[in-house]
Each structure stands twice: as C-alpha cells, then as structure tokens.
Amino acid sequence: MLLRPPSLLRALASPPPLTRACVPARRTLSAAAEAAGTASAGDAAPAPAVPRKSGRKLAPPPRDIVKTALFLPPGVEPGAAVTPDMVIPGSNIVVGPYAGDARVKEAEFVGSSARARDCPKDDRPEFAVLGRSNVGKSSLINALTRRKEAALTSKKPGKTQTINHFLVNKSWHLVDLPGYGFAAASQSARMDWSSFTKGYFLNRDTLVGVLLLIDASIPPQKIDLDCANWLGRNNIGLTFVFTKCDKVKKGKGGRPDENIKVFQDTISGLYPEPPPWIMTSSVTGLGRDGLLLHMSQLRNYWDNEAV
C-alpha cells in the first residue's frame, strides 16, 4: 500500500494554500523499519500516579469533543475505518502504523542557544514546545521527561529567554522555546525573542513539529490563534496541546471541555483538515502517554520517509 503524507495544513484566512505536509519527510521506509515502528497504545509507559496534593480524579473527556474531526497520521488512508480504541483518549489523534515505543528512558539537558544558528547541529529529530507564558510549558516538559527540574519553572512570566535543547533517549530532542505574550518583559525584549524564535522555525531542518500549548482553563486567547495562524501560513506542522485540563478558574469563564470546544470551532475556520490536538494535565498525568505515543509516530515517519 502506498503511504500517503499526513494531512496538509492550509490556512484559509488570506495566504495561498499550503503545500508542505504536517511532518517533514526524510528517508525511505524499509520493511524492517515499518515492522519495528508498528505498535499500539499499550507500548506507552504506565500513567503516573496522581500526586497526593491533589486527590481529584479527572473525569474522562466527553466523547462529543472529538466528534468526527479526527487527525489521521501517516500510514492511515483517508476513509479508513477507525474504531474508538484506535483514538488516543482525550484527543482527536488516531494511532497509526508508525506508532512505536513511546517510553522516555532518559533525558538530559544539552544546552541553551541565544540564536537559532547556535542550536545543536545533528540529524536528530526534534519537537519544539511553544506557548503563551504561564501556559505550563516547563511543567509539560518536566512531566514528559519525568524530571522535576528538566525545564526551569517559575511564576514569573518570560523566564525562558533562550532556545533550550533536551536530548531524550539519545535519539531525539525536546526543545523549550521562550513564551510569547509575557507581560513582565519589555517591548524590546519581546521583539528580540520573537525574532529569534521565528528564525528557529523557518530554518530548523530537523524540526518534526511544534507542540503549541493552549490553556484550557480559560477561554481562547487571540494571541494563541494568531500564533497558530502564523505557523500555518509558514507550513509548520503543529499539535495543539491543551494544558491545565484539571482546572476550573472561577470568574474566567468556562470549563476546560467548553473552552476546548470553542477553540476547536474557531480553528475549524482556519484549517479544512483538523490538526491533531490532545488534553493534558501536569497535575494528574492526563495525556502524557498519549502525547508521547503521538510524537513517536510522527518521529518514526520523519526518520524513515523519503525526501
């Protein structure tokens, strides 16, 4: 069966249709590699226990959130029969034949770069973590790697001011990028950080995709929609990662599932084909294993598909 590329991101606002697939292609897939990459959600690491400081149990995400707008990963043909057990819980992501071992066995900090051209120069694939300040970027990285201090956490927005690389399993990178929209930073600093971050996106050949973090505890923010639109216009594959799905903030409007639904309805006007999205919580561990499984299938496709 001929492998189709993943869904294309086509921003419909004003730019011309996008022509690059969500996941960059690289080398030809061999039969052995395809067999090794085929796995199910059971290959993911066991879900972490709920920390004692929170006795709450998060209810399963409402099924009507997912609807039929599923993200079909590489290797899943359009129109293929998809059963509920093929969809990662709390997401619209179908598990395809490229899904593989999603466990994080080790993670180490590689270094910080003040400029995109100073980032590590190797062929390892990488995922960039991006989001508004205080959205939970560092907490997500810590949860994925299961290292409490892998990324610097702080209550002061704008703490991350460099491009920080973490090497996972000695085979791929997780990249912590500066947050956007941080009120505590000066206007000049915001412009500088935005400039070198965009330079990273536009010139990083090893970038598999962006994990764009969205705070599900508050209604959709224009700055997040603008960022998603910019990534789409520049043909940069992304996954929406909804954070803080265990929280309901009084006076700020809406439950997480309601806010996610509004965000989805808004985004659907920009993308004719649904980008992947997943619900997460660094407190309860919701979505950790599913996100790693999703990243494994994108990474395996990137590693093995022809240029």
Automatic annotation (TrEMBL):
Biased composition (Low complexity): 34-47
InterPro entries: G_ENGB_dom, GTP-bd, GTP-bd_ribosome_bio_YsxC, P-loop_NTPase
CDD domains reported for this sequence: YihA_EngB
Cofactor: Mg(2+)
Annotated stretches, region: Disordered: 34-61
Keywords from the named record: GTP-binding, Magnesium, Metal-binding, Nucleotide-binding
A GO term for molecular function: metal ion binding
Gene3D superfamilies, per database record: P-loop containing nucleotide triphosphate hydrolases
Family: Belongs to the TRAFAC class TrmE-Era-EngA-EngB-Septin-like GTPase superfamily. EngB GTPase family.
PANTHER family found in the cross-reference section: MSS1/TRME-RELATED GTP-BINDING PROTEIN, PROTEIN, PUTATIVE, EXPRESSED-RELATED
Protein name from the UniProt record: EngB-type G domain-containing protein
Native species: Urochloa decumbens
